[in-house]
Amino acid sequence: MAAPLVPPGQRVVPTLRRLDLGVVPRVPLEKWDLRVTGEVESPAQWSWAEFAALPRVKISADFHCVTGWSRLGNAWEGVAFREVAERVRPKPTAVSAMLHTGEGYTTSLPLSVLLDDDVLFATHLDGAPIPVEHGGPMRLIVPKRYAWKSAKWVRQVDFLARHEPGYWEVRGYSDTADPWTEDRYSL
After folding, report:
1. What is the pLDDT of residues 53-89, one digit of tens each?
2. In degrees, to the nearest 5, what angle opens at C-alpha 83 toward C-alphas 82 and 85?
3. Is the whole model's pTM more than 0.85, yes or no?
4. C-alpha dihedral sign at 62, 69, 135, 106
5. Residues 25-53: tens digit of each pLDDT
Protein backbone atom coordinates (compact mmCIF):
# COMPACT_ATOMS: atom_id res chain seq x y z
CA MET A 1 0.00 0.00 0.00
CA ALA A 2 1.38 3.43 -0.96
CA ALA A 3 1.92 6.09 1.69
CA PRO A 4 -0.77 8.79 1.75
CA LEU A 5 0.00 12.05 -0.05
CA VAL A 6 -1.60 14.27 2.57
CA PRO A 7 -1.55 14.08 6.35
CA PRO A 8 -4.69 12.96 8.17
CA GLY A 9 -7.41 15.60 8.41
CA GLN A 10 -6.11 17.56 5.40
CA ARG A 11 -7.68 18.24 1.99
CA VAL A 12 -5.77 19.26 -1.15
CA VAL A 13 -6.29 22.78 -2.53
CA PRO A 14 -4.95 24.23 -5.81
CA THR A 15 -3.56 27.49 -4.38
CA LEU A 16 -2.24 28.81 -1.09
CA ARG A 17 -4.86 30.36 1.16
CA ARG A 18 -4.15 33.62 2.96
CA LEU A 19 -4.13 33.49 6.75
CA ASP A 20 -2.37 36.11 8.86
CA LEU A 21 -2.86 38.51 11.76
CA GLY A 22 -4.63 41.03 9.50
CA VAL A 23 -1.58 43.21 8.87
CA VAL A 24 0.45 42.90 5.67
CA PRO A 25 3.75 44.73 6.14
CA ARG A 26 4.89 46.47 2.98
CA VAL A 27 8.55 47.33 3.22
CA PRO A 28 10.31 48.78 0.17
CA LEU A 29 13.18 46.48 -0.79
CA GLU A 30 15.70 49.29 -0.33
CA LYS A 31 14.63 49.48 3.37
CA TRP A 32 14.25 45.72 3.97
CA ASP A 33 16.81 43.88 6.08
CA LEU A 34 17.24 40.60 7.92
CA ARG A 35 18.95 40.62 11.32
CA VAL A 36 20.37 37.51 12.98
CA THR A 37 21.14 37.89 16.69
CA GLY A 38 21.40 36.00 19.95
CA GLU A 39 23.53 32.95 20.67
CA VAL A 40 25.77 33.32 17.59
CA GLU A 41 29.47 34.01 17.11
CA SER A 42 28.90 36.55 14.32
CA PRO A 43 25.62 38.49 14.46
CA ALA A 44 24.64 39.61 10.98
CA GLN A 45 22.42 42.00 9.11
CA TRP A 46 21.72 41.69 5.39
CA SER A 47 20.09 44.21 3.08
CA TRP A 48 17.76 42.81 0.42
CA ALA A 49 20.53 42.97 -2.20
CA GLU A 50 22.99 41.20 0.11
CA PHE A 51 20.44 38.54 1.09
CA ALA A 52 19.41 37.93 -2.53
CA ALA A 53 23.10 37.39 -3.42
CA LEU A 54 23.51 34.50 -0.95
CA PRO A 55 23.69 30.98 -2.44
CA ARG A 56 20.24 29.75 -3.45
CA VAL A 57 18.50 26.40 -3.31
CA LYS A 58 15.35 24.98 -4.88
CA ILE A 59 13.10 22.40 -3.26
CA SER A 60 9.76 20.81 -3.99
CA ALA A 61 7.71 20.55 -0.81
CA ASP A 62 4.15 20.35 0.36
CA PHE A 63 2.54 23.00 2.56
CA HIS A 64 0.06 22.01 5.29
CA CYS A 65 -2.16 24.50 7.13
CA VAL A 66 -3.51 23.70 10.58
CA THR A 67 -6.98 24.70 9.33
CA GLY A 68 -7.07 21.53 7.22
CA TRP A 69 -5.80 22.34 3.74
CA SER A 70 -2.63 21.26 1.96
CA ARG A 71 -1.05 22.41 -1.29
CA LEU A 72 1.20 19.75 -2.76
CA GLY A 73 4.38 19.99 -4.83
CA ASN A 74 5.24 23.64 -4.29
CA ALA A 75 8.43 24.74 -6.06
CA TRP A 76 10.17 26.91 -3.45
CA GLU A 77 13.40 28.82 -4.07
CA GLY A 78 15.48 30.84 -1.64
CA VAL A 79 18.31 30.69 0.88
CA ALA A 80 18.67 27.59 3.04
CA PHE A 81 18.35 28.24 6.77
CA ARG A 82 21.51 26.16 7.10
CA GLU A 83 23.36 28.70 4.89
CA VAL A 84 22.43 31.56 7.21
CA ALA A 85 23.35 29.49 10.28
CA GLU A 86 26.78 28.65 8.84
CA ARG A 87 27.47 32.35 8.31
CA VAL A 88 26.51 33.42 11.87
CA ARG A 89 27.94 30.29 13.56
CA PRO A 90 25.54 29.41 16.40
CA LYS A 91 27.24 29.01 19.77
CA PRO A 92 27.15 25.57 21.43
CA THR A 93 24.57 27.05 23.82
CA ALA A 94 22.06 27.70 21.02
CA VAL A 95 19.16 25.21 21.05
CA SER A 96 16.43 26.97 19.09
CA ALA A 97 15.59 30.16 17.23
CA MET A 98 12.76 32.67 17.55
CA LEU A 99 11.70 34.20 14.25
CA HIS A 100 10.27 37.71 14.36
CA THR A 101 8.20 39.09 11.52
CA GLY A 102 7.25 42.46 10.10
CA GLU A 103 3.79 42.48 11.69
CA GLY A 104 4.82 41.41 15.19
CA TYR A 105 4.30 37.65 14.82
CA THR A 106 6.78 35.18 16.29
CA THR A 107 7.37 31.47 16.00
CA SER A 108 10.14 29.30 17.35
CA LEU A 109 11.68 26.02 16.34
CA PRO A 110 14.50 23.84 17.64
CA LEU A 111 17.72 24.10 15.66
CA SER A 112 17.45 20.37 14.95
CA VAL A 113 14.35 21.18 12.86
CA LEU A 114 15.62 24.42 11.30
CA LEU A 115 18.86 22.82 10.10
CA ASP A 116 17.00 20.19 8.07
CA ASP A 117 17.83 20.11 4.33
CA ASP A 118 14.40 21.39 3.26
CA VAL A 119 14.08 24.47 5.52
CA LEU A 120 14.65 27.73 3.70
CA PHE A 121 13.99 31.44 3.55
CA ALA A 122 11.90 31.37 0.39
CA THR A 123 11.79 34.30 -2.01
CA HIS A 124 10.10 32.49 -4.91
CA LEU A 125 7.18 30.10 -5.31
CA ASP A 126 6.53 28.22 -8.54
CA GLY A 127 9.07 30.35 -10.43
CA ALA A 128 7.74 33.77 -9.38
CA PRO A 129 8.53 36.10 -6.46
CA ILE A 130 6.35 35.30 -3.46
CA PRO A 131 3.46 37.80 -3.39
CA VAL A 132 3.44 40.13 -0.41
CA GLU A 133 0.16 38.66 0.88
CA HIS A 134 1.87 35.26 1.14
CA GLY A 135 4.96 36.60 2.90
CA GLY A 136 6.94 38.31 0.15
CA PRO A 137 9.56 39.35 -0.30
CA MET A 138 10.75 36.48 1.95
CA ARG A 139 9.22 33.91 4.27
CA LEU A 140 10.40 30.87 6.16
CA ILE A 141 9.37 27.46 4.82
CA VAL A 142 9.42 24.45 7.19
CA PRO A 143 7.73 21.72 5.12
CA LYS A 144 7.55 19.06 7.84
CA ARG A 145 5.55 21.31 10.20
CA TYR A 146 2.15 22.99 10.04
CA ALA A 147 2.31 26.31 8.22
CA TRP A 148 2.17 28.56 11.30
CA LYS A 149 5.82 27.56 11.79
CA SER A 150 6.57 28.85 8.25
CA ALA A 151 6.49 32.50 9.25
CA LYS A 152 5.74 35.18 6.67
CA TRP A 153 7.69 38.47 6.46
CA VAL A 154 10.66 37.31 8.58
CA ARG A 155 12.87 40.21 9.62
CA GLN A 156 14.85 38.81 12.56
CA VAL A 157 16.16 35.45 13.70
CA ASP A 158 17.18 35.28 17.36
CA PHE A 159 19.16 32.16 18.33
CA LEU A 160 18.22 31.11 21.87
CA ALA A 161 19.93 29.20 24.67
CA ARG A 162 16.48 28.14 25.96
CA HIS A 163 13.49 27.28 23.78
CA GLU A 164 10.62 29.76 24.09
CA PRO A 165 7.10 29.51 22.66
CA GLY A 166 5.99 31.81 19.85
CA TYR A 167 2.73 33.65 19.16
CA TRP A 168 0.43 30.65 18.55
CA GLU A 169 2.18 28.32 20.98
CA VAL A 170 1.40 30.59 23.96
CA ARG A 171 -2.23 30.52 22.75
CA GLY A 172 -2.54 26.74 22.95
CA TYR A 173 -1.14 25.49 19.65
CA SER A 174 1.34 22.62 19.65
CA ASP A 175 5.01 23.51 19.74
CA THR A 176 5.99 20.54 17.57
CA ALA A 177 3.25 21.07 14.91
CA ASP A 178 3.67 17.73 13.13
CA PRO A 179 0.94 17.39 10.48
CA TRP A 180 1.44 13.62 10.11
CA THR A 181 0.41 13.06 13.73
CA GLU A 182 -2.24 15.85 13.67
CA ASP A 183 -0.29 17.61 16.42
CA ARG A 184 -2.33 20.81 16.22
CA TYR A 185 -2.93 21.84 19.83
CA SER A 186 -1.26 21.46 23.21
CA LEU A 187 -2.93 19.10 25.63
Report:
1. 999 999 999 999 999 999 999 999 999 999 999 999 9
2. 60
3. yes
4. negative
5. 888 999 999 999 999 999 999 999 999 99
Dihedral in degrees, nearest 10, Cα atoms 133, 43, 78, 116 = -110
Cα–Cα distances in Å, from 140 out to 5, 89, 143, 160?
Answer: 22, 19, 10, 18
Burial class (CB in 10 A: 0-12, 13-18, 19+), 128: exposed
Give percent helix, percent strand, percent coil of the chain, each to the nearest 5: 15, 35, 50
Q: What CATH number was assigned to the domain covering residues 32-181?
A: 3.90.420.10
Name the 3-class secondary structure at 87: helix
Amino acid at 178: D
Residues forming beta bridges with residue 4, ordered by sequence position? none
How far, in Å, CA of 62 to CA of 42, rounded? 33
Please check whether residue 38 is in contact with residue 21, taking contact to mean a CB–CB distance below 8 angstroms: no
- Residue type at position 72: L
Where along the chain do its domains lie? 32-181
